Amino acid sequence: MREASIDLNAHPRRAKVRLRMAMPAASVIPRGALAEPLQAQTDGDVTSLWIGPDQWLLISDRLPADALLARCASQLGNLLHHAVDVSASLNCAHVNGPSVRALLRMGSGITWSDQCARTRFASIPVIAHRLAEDAFDLYYDRSYRYHLERWFDHAVRDPLLTDLQCRSSS
Amino acid sequence: MSRGPYRLAQGGRIERARTVSFVFNGRTLTGHAGDTLASALLANGIGVVSRSFKYHRPRGVFSAGLEEPNALLRVQVDGCAIPLVRATMQPLVEGMVVTSENCFPSVDFDLGRILDAAHSLFPAGFYNKTFKWPSWSTYEGLVRRLAGLGTLPSGTDRTEFFRHHLNCDVLVVGGGVAGLCAARAAARAGANVVLIEQDAELGGRALCEKLQIEGQAACDWIKTVVDELNSSGRVSIMQRTIAAGYYDHNVLTALDLRHADRAEGRVERFWIIRAREVVLATGAIEQPLVFTRNDRPGVMLAGAARAYLNRYGVAVGRHVVIATNNDDAYRSAFDLHDAGVRIAAIVDARARAGVQVEEGIERRKLRVNRSSMIVDTRGSSLVSGVAVRQLTSDGRGFQGPSQWIECDAVAVSSGWNPTVHLYSQAGGKVRYELSLACLVPESCRQRVRVTGAVNGEFALDRVLESAARAGSDAAHDAASATPQGRAETRAAPVAYRTETHGIREIRCAPDGASARQWVDLLHDVTREDIEIAVRENYTSVEHLKRYTTTGMAVDQGKTSNLNALAILSELTGREIASLGTTTFRPQFMPVTFGAISGGQQGDLYSPVRHMPVHEWHVRHAAQMEDYGGWKRPACYLRQGESREQAILREVQAVRSALGLFEGSPLGKIEVRGPDAAQFLHRFYINNVLSLQPGKARYGLMLNENGIVMDDGIFARLSPEHFLVSTTAANGDRVTAWLEEWHQCEWPDLNVVLMPVTTQWAVLTLAGPLARALLQELSSDIDFSAAAFPHLGFRSGELAGRPVRVQRVSFTGELSYEISVPANEAQGLWEELMTRGEKLGIAPIGIEAWLILRLEKGFLHVGTDTDGTTNPLDLGFARVVDNKVGDFIGRRSLMRPHDRSENRRQLVGIEPISRADTLVPGAHIVTHSGSSRRSEGFVTSAAFSPTLGRFIGLALLERGHARLDDVITVFDEGRTVQARVVKPAFFDPKGERMNA
């Protein structure tokens, strides 16, 4: 069995931009420009995660947040929108391993089958991005870092999750 | 009280090679792996295991399942004692220490038994009628000490609790024959199935019976089916897991005790399961007969006697009497007889049993007292004999004399009643079926099916047919149902209800009013109690339940509801079917609060947030406390300093030099769009439209009733871009408030909202030297007084970091609120502290911050306001009057009551004597004769190091018109004379913050 891990501070340099559009504008975006509901979509260096009917989280490991903001401005310039760099406020927790779904189901009642979901996990708001069947990124507010760490420490003590080890890279 | 060993030489499913030792009431006993605590006690001949709840009567094991009302014992494993554990559900664990509850000095000799002798003083509802003179409180202490069952857990509880969620296509509750068959059918149909079974073994009643199923012995059939389920890859089986609650939208909860007895420590797991389709195969619970002194140890359910024999190899007695009104109990008689136990007699309320049963009786030459019932029992504690009388032909009376039959155990049965608790919790209707003489499911609006005994199906071949159909239908419906789809009302199938066991509807010995006949063993409710209730006109089942307590609490009437209904029917002359049933409530079985919490206790009870500079604060002796869900420094202790000294020092640092305060939790919301100004203008009592870019303004936000809900600064970053600041505790609330109004009321306004609270850390530099420090740092912002006046806003760079700076003040001093990306906050904080050291900079905790604002008389919403405070009360009448256009709450402020001068208004107060103190919460009182009336209360108070005296803010009736009045402040018997003053105690002209 390969090692399973929980990294509460994964991808610390990842740029994250939250994009919100006015509802009239959100309804006229051409299909394919941004992720569809409950989906994630990668276009070149940028992945967009659907987090609401008028909201997306744009992430990139290669482009800085300023570039993402500029991209929003150029592509959506004539539509009312607001894009904000949230790289400093959102942390990314990466969780993978054979028992990852059992572990995640301890924190939220969603099915964890969608590519992207905005939900409450461990009593805090998160954006979940399913990378593979057994690998997820959870974007969470940095102020909950200690809470989430304690929550995972507790959860992995459940004998049902014997193969998970809580490991933080921070 | 022991009767010697009762373990048979052979039989049962226990591991005879593995002996397990345990201690019961100080005696070391042994059992075997596979035993329950109850079977081990019975095998050791333990007859009396507990004392009853109310009358302290001796009680023995009564059942073999979760319906057990008597054997609720205190079980200690690994140093932690857990009360009221059902011995019938508790696997035997090596080293377990078991103690009887509710008895002193011992279970065999209990002084509490005196209550039984005086039982006539304590009938149902006695506390409503007795102990009235001189008053209830005279007796209350004694009654409360005697009341209740069990004692709180002792020892160090190392139990770990976890919560899990689970989604599935089909949830099958019950791992008996019906449940296994349904799960198999659902899995074969391609559904993802979860199968829950309360027992540690799958098979349900089949484990206790000598059955052939589909041509195989029951145990072989179970193994075959379980192997198929395990190999299907679609079935998750959860044994020793009890489905305890069934809620709307097919959400069920279950308590998982799979790891409850592991050596490394007890684990309880709470499951929240969302199922597209549910199949309930929860079986049925055998009901007892009601006769005089039917609670005597040795009297138990006939099916339980069979279970102990066939599953655990334990004979419940050596001379057993079987009492029944149906054919099923004969199986117990036959199995016990075949195992070598003497059947003293079978007492059957019917004239004749079924044909096959009669053949069995004939073959075994058993003695049967036909058309008879037990009318009494005898014995010192344990049963030693029963009195039997013949029934009249209509079953409503007796004829002929009683006949005593010697015995040491009595197995009773008045038929099986479906375990409809979960079905009822789901909203399912339940009705009394006369032909089966039991309650059966009728219909339910949830996506639920019932199969097997829970649906009144008692014939094995029909159960197999019914369960297979339920499973495959559930799988089919789960595949076709959309998550949003609403199920039609589903009727429970009736086609499979073919077996009646030849039951005769006689449950209670007639003419029983002369002595006590027990109906609810757990709550010590007798037939006499029900008679009293009916005499007092509590003839509704719901009233009867509450008046007598029958069927209440953790038991939920598992062995008492039906008999209580039968007696109520007899006493009121109404048919049982017309009486209805009580509501079965969650939890079906007791679930610990720990399990429900899922381990969310201590640090995990509520998520606490940490600020970006948290680690620096901790390293520098900050006293971290919870403020509005955030861990924040209350103050920073220096060597040898008390908390009070630290707070005063920090106040003085800000007034005399410089302080640095982290205000990152302040809520921040960006509002952008061509209608942004108009949008915000409708929320604030202040004018927003007139605010120019680069400027900030203080504002109050009201709810529809005109009550102050939040305050803060809003800044105009550009013509179409605003930054709204809220109080720290209200960030999420104000965001939701703005969203609701935008989405629901004003979708026509073209704006976009974006909360950015934690993207930006806020470091506030306050004090007369604040500007000097900022001007030392590299920046493209001109911090000079002329270029950056009070209530100005600037964006730029500071010390190489992007910042947003607002010149606003909560302290009354020259002050800059510096917002910096959260990941840059600690670096900037450290740089400010280092560069400010020569200026006397000090980190400031929140306690000093609040004193500084109190000295200035600034409002703290939530502290200086309550759920009735409007802006007029706070002195904002001119702002409201000058506001151009409408805003939320304005209409309410036009009501006469809201404008009344008699309202409680915010004022400052200071004690007449400088030595006197003030405390928040103290009332301002007036005296009228000997009575005292409150005119308001102190909202904030503290010692002001700047002024050298206590000061406070208060909400006081007609306060604005009472400046210079002397008032009386009352606090816990102490009174202080204080003067009413304007709220601004320090620098009322604002010269310092405008400097």
* Unreliable residue stretches of chain B: none
- What is the averaged pLDDT score of chain B? 95
Largest sheet of chain B: 7 strands, mixed
- Mind describing the biggest β-sheet of chain A? 6 strands, mixed
The overall pLDDT of chain A, averaged over residues, is: 91
Total number of beta strands of chain A: 11
> In what range is the share of β-strand residues of chain B?
25-35%
Tally of separate helices of chain A: 4
Shape of chain B: elongated
Measure the end-to-end span of chain B. 90 Å
What features would you describe in this structure?
The complex is a heterodimer of chains A (170) and B (995). Chain A is α+β, with helices and mostly antiparallel strands and 170 residues long. Chain A is built from four helices and eleven strands; from the N terminus they run E-E-H-E-E-E-H-E-E-H-E-E-E-H-E. In chain A, strand 9 and strand 10 form a beta hairpin. The radius of gyration of chain A is 16 Å and the shape is elongated. The C terminus of chain A is likely disordered. Chain B has 995 residues and is an alpha+beta fold. Chain B is 24% helix and 30% strand. In chain B, a hairpin with a 2-residue loop joins strand 42 and strand 43. Chain B is elongated, with a radius of gyration of 38 Å. Chain B starts with 14 loop residues before the first strand and ends in a 14-residue tail after the last strand. The model of chain B has no long low-confidence stretch (mean pLDDT 95). The interface between A and B is large, with 40 and 46 residues.
